[in-house]
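Data availability (excerpt). The following record was deposited with the supplementary files.
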Amino acid sequence: MIPVSAGLSRSAKTGPVRSTWLQLASVFVLFLGIIILIQHLSGAWASETSHYPDEPSHVVTSLMIHDYIASGFPASPMNYGESYYIHYPKVAFGMWPPVFHICAAAWMLLFGASKAALLFFVAAQGAGLATTLYWFCRAEFGFVAALGLGVLLLLNPLTESTFTMIMLDVSISLLDFLSMVALLRFFRTQQTRDAALFGLITAIAMLTKGNSNALVLMPPVVMLLTRSWSILKKPGIYIGACIIALVGGPWQILSWSLLKGSVPIAHIDASWIAGNFRDYAKDLLDSLGWTTIALAIVGLFLAVRRARAISSPADRTAFTLAGAVALFFAVVVFQCIAPVPPDIRYVAPVVPPLLIFFAYGVLTIARQIPTRFPLAVSTTGLAVLCLAPFAMNTFAIPSRPPLGFARVADVLMAADVPPNSVSLVCADSLGEGALIAEIALRDRHARHFLLRSSKVMSENEWDPTIYRPQFQTPVAVLDYLDSVPVHFVVVDHTKPLWKADRNLLLSAIQNNPKWQIIKDIPESPVSRHLVVYRRTDMPGTAASGRPNIQINMRFTLGRNLKLK
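Predicted structure:
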């Protein structure tokens, strides 16, 4: 028989566990609601998925994987991917590692291939990050402070902007933080399984984006701060390293080989590193506010001192602060020496550790202030006082206005448009990507083809200073339009990538009886000035029923893509 006491013991254990999970679920739902509200207020739900040049690439690449699986793997992955690119030339598989796009595709298999599903996918990850920060900080700072840190994470402009786009930055912030948590668990338990977990999460992060290569810097920083030299005698540290190298490493080589052919690689020297550090410091100051950053800097120095005073592996506070320092140091150092231009998105993973430093700085200072009030009251008062400038001057909802290309996509997807129709879009990188993503989201059977003027009117690397025109005269442009043939031309009169391309294209089709305007969308707060031209004769395609499309991909693949 089972003793009654044993049953009571199990009940006593399961009660707190169930309560903890219920609390975490409630906090997650709260954070998820905040993010969805931010997305709605920013206009992200009503606009195109092209607020950054990379965003439509992530949308189309995820759709490609979704469609490949949903259609029952109809061809080899390479052949299918090349065919998909010719339809929707914004596929970037390989330029970025595959984890985000595979997960987004799986998400869409469950919730539908739509912009709403993708925004919810990002929101769920953001809520997961804020919930993890809350869980990590609750033991150190208490329920109210931990909840406040989660809310502050969601409301600062840097992370707000990442929640309103289909980008990789929320995924990277979440995986980087989870990697830090797993690393600290290994340092405390020194168990091989915890080291393997750290290696696996780090490898997954690296297979999401190369920025997470920074995570390999964390173990030596934690070791140095806590003087846990005995960890080097544990097999787990080497098992974790092997997982990182064998699982996460190979794709970095592939991505680098593709990127270096198309992306300008900077020369790294002291001035480059100093310039990156200065730019990132300014970006973080603008995002978090000077009072928050000031308290975070104080907390950072106090955290280093506290981590150095570690008493034993059971010293949770010391390891918590050491982990925050390690993640902050790893990301900042890596991004300062990275040979690519700085972008504030790249330092999004340092926001959680900065908030931990802020909380620790506030708590430490509050303990030194003589007062008759309880510590919780004085700490809350000091935090509110420090956050007042942020609330008044820094907090803002990002703006994601429509570009007008969704309306153009409706025109190109009209019922009277024949299958295998070809549309050429002449716009900047945001405009090109917006139209391609909108068509891809609507065209579930790949019946349409799109051409980017930046790919066919000129030949350019990812460098705005390099321009190589492919046509010299309007007659040459008309000959190309006939050879494909192109049925629709979409011209952005507000923001072209190359004015020379737009002017030459307009010289070819304006006042030409073969082409007529079927949609003219004037410039307004909710649209650029967009004009859609349609051929009056609407010629058929080649004898095969397929257009004659060839795309120059020599900068990445080293060859041309041709529709077969």
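Summary of structural features: The first helix runs from residue 4 to 42.
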